[in-house]
């Protein structure tokens, strides 16, 4: 596609990568190949597709598009973000050590702590905003450093390039859950990470109508191991779900522009509001890692968290008083959402070292008109 030409931009790749007109009909949209098997002309003579757990043309188009978004040769699609994360943990053996950010997605912590720990993986939960802590946690058995940046729900950043350099002598893989940023705002593989993971349920799908996950990577051997695990364990997405994610991705770049513009306006509004004690948003000058955010990200996205002066009770009432911001888990869709992590998404971390502040409220700022969003937040804060 780019022979002798300058590389295509992400806005263009989102629309075209992996998607050729259907060879049978010329259909411009990749068809939903709703089939489990493929007819062979003679035993073991087929057109590259044998069985849809192994490969499916709609999934293949999505996987090639996902790879292009993260500037990677390889992409793998999964039935959910957790299935993608679970498949990465399957690379390891009892006794292997994983360093993970102490502010990760609640489901990632639950999978590590309640499932993979009992299979013998050893986890250290560290503050990955602090390079010294990451360095001190590396042992001879360390096989993986698991990062989220920005983290969920406190919007803390990890310096991906610096941690990749730190990890290099140990041979540990660096994986980044890039769900919050999306590839439009941040490309971890170009910063030195080995693996990128997405919950495509969020910004990539973008319309709150599908659950899915993905892994993108550059190393061929590692890709072949993960592709083997994808087929062996079988947590693959169906073709209709792949179609929805492919369709969502077409507008990803446009949506991220609006999410980021609205996110910054909402963050500034909340920061100036007398009921608000703290706002966590990497695009604010007051964010402790704003300089790193500017270096590592193209823009700052639509996710932010806030703590009110009135503490937990005020936070819960705020999350229940908005009208346009719907009270719901999840994020990254066109519509604005609000939630209380302590009692909702992060309930599984409640009595652990990873527990979130019970007063924290998380907002996923959508792409509605900014004046309507600010008006909704103003009336909700006024009602406290
Ligand atoms: C939602 C989410 C996941 C899990 O993805 P699912 O598609 O819900 O399985 C993982 N990481 C982050 C940061 C998420 O927001």
Describe the structure.
With about 375 residues, the protein is an alpha/beta fold. Helix content is about 35%, strand content about 15%. The chain folds into two domains: about 10-250, Type I PLP-dependent aspartate aminotransferase-like (Major domain) (Aspartate Aminotransferase, domain 2, 3-Layer(aba) Sandwich); about 255-380, Aspartate Aminotransferase, domain 1. The protein has helices at about 10-15, 55-70, 80-90, 105-115, 130-135, 160-165, 180-185, 220-235, 240-250, 250-270, 290-295, 310-320, 370-380, and strands spanning about 75-80, 95-100, 120-125, 140-150, 175, 195-200, 215, 275-280, 305-310, 325, 335-340, 360-365. Strands 1-7-6-5-4-2-3 form a seven-stranded mixed beta sheet, sandwiched between helices. A five-stranded mixed beta sheet has the order 8-9-12-11-10, covered by helices on one side. Helix 4 links the parallel strand 2 and strand 3 (about 120-125). Helix 3 runs parallel beside helix 4 and helix 10 (about 250-270) runs parallel beside helix 13. The radius of gyration is 21 Å and the shape is globular. The chain starts with 9 loop residues before the first helix and ends with a helix. The model has no long low-confidence stretch (mean pLDDT about 95). Pyridoxal-5'-phosphate binds near residues 80, 81, 108, 179 and 202.
